[in-house]
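Form 7-S
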Amino acid sequence: MNSIKKKAEDPKNNTITTPKNIELLNRMTILMERQVELWKREAIRILGKIARKIKIAETYFYSF
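Output:
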């Protein structure tokens, strides 16, 4: 029974039909991982803008 359950929980295994709740949980996990990647990219973009503004401010400050 446990071997059948493990096979059913594997979304890449097509020999046994996966229960709907496991399919939904797998899909949610994939979507959350994608969301985290988008947040990381956005954070890097924002931090890059901040770093450029700091560099401009430092250049201006040290020019006196």
